[in-house]
Design brief:
alpha+beta; three-stranded antiparallel beta sheet; two-stranded parallel sheet; 4 helices; about 10% strand; globular
Length: about 150
């Protein structure tokens, strides 16, 4: 029997203000979008991917009040979490076929107490595994149920 490890995560003691240079992959872009949405102040993403997955994630973050604005030169500015609202009334978030978006928006939605959303995707998306993530989020206190 494997022993369980306990991992404690502490927020940084001071605000993080840094410049990261990442590849143009949609996976990195989606991570940058989530980090920008969680930041206390606006974030600027230079040379962002405009993949269908990233545009989908941007659209879903807007439901939470995250504002985005394309700037001159193609950069993308995100408002940060100070403007974030909690969706209610069973808001439907459609991730389409995007597995990374499904996982990221599930975790993001679980971070907001009172958030009442339905996350759905393509038929193929409903066949992909998400149980380990849901189990972990529930262990952290999220209230999640499978409806389909």
């Amino acid at each position: 029997m494997a022993s369980e490890e306990v991992l404690t995560i502490f927020p940084p003691e001071e605000p993080v203000n840094t410049l990261l240079t990442l590849s143009g992959s949609k996976s990195f872009m989606n991570r940058a979008l989530i980090l920008g949405a969680l930041a206390d102040s606006p974030s600027l993403i230079s040379n962002p991917s405009r993949s269908e997955d990233s545009i989908t994630l941007l659209r879903l973050l807007k439901v939470f009040g995250v504002e985005s604005r394309w700037k001159e030169g193609g950069a993308l500015e995100l408002s940060g979490r100070k403007k974030v609202c909690t969706p209610s009334a069973e808001t439907v978030l459609d991730v389409g076929p995007a597995g990374t978006v499904m996982r990221f928006i599930t975790s993001y939605a679980a971070a907001f107490e009172g958030s009442d959303v339905i996350i759905r995707g393509s038929e193929r998306m409903h066949q992909r595994p998400i149980g380990a993530l849901v189990d972990t989020l529930m262990a952290l206190g999220a209230n999640i149920e499978y409806i389909g």
